[in-house]
Amino acid sequence: MVLNNIEKLIEKYHNAETSIKEEAQLKAYFNGDSVAPEFEHYKPMFQYFSQSQKEQYTKDVPLKSKKTTLYQWISVAAVAVLMLGLVVPSFMGPTEAEKQEALLVYNQTMEAFSLISLGMNEGKTQLTNLALVGENINVGAQQASKLGTFSTITNKILKNNSN
Predict the structure, then answer these.
(1) Which residues have a Cβ under 8 Å from the Cβ of 18 and sit 6 or more positions away?
(2) I need a labelling partner for 45 at 20 to 30 A (CA). Which of 27, 58, 108, 158 fits?
(3) How many helices (H) and strands (E) does the chain have?
């Protein structure tokens, strides 16, 4: 019955489901002399755990005192300047009159852009009309060259009929 219990505890140990009390039972079993042969390969592991629990670090750990350096004070000053840069403009922002003037200038600028846009749109339609005239002139030139060819052929026909 004890071997069956140990086998269940080892299975629980591998699944990380054992309690501290169950782990103590396993350590006591494997530190004893009557370990079953099928569990003999677990004995060094549990003996190591028991031995390593008794180890202690005996050297003194020197603690260094922190000295403030110039770089630390520079970083504190930089943070202070940054905070002032963020806080001061909110207190000393533009007055109501300055806001109204800026809004007036903005509206005047938008009107000027609107007029420029209208002028550009008119120029664009004139360029489109000019492009149409250019295309019509090209078509007319092609028709004129055909007319010249027609005229030459007609003259030849009339000359042959009169002879």
Answers:
(1) 9, 12, 26
(2) 58
(3) 5, 0
Smallest Cα–Cα separation from 2: which of 39, 52, 49?
39
E strand or H helix at 17, and its extent?
A: none
What residue segments make up the domains of the chain, in order of their start? Answer: 2-54, 96-163
Closest by CA to 35, choosing from 46, 43, 27, 47, is 43
Q: What confidence tens digit (pLDDT) does each residue in 86-122 have?
A: 777 667 767 788 889 989 999 999 998 888 888 888 8
Report the amino acid identity of residue 94.
P
Q: How confident is the model at residue 127 (pLDDT cuts 50, 70, 90)?
A: confident
Tokens at 162, concatenated: 């009169």
Tracing tokens 């219990």 back to the chain, one arrives at: 5
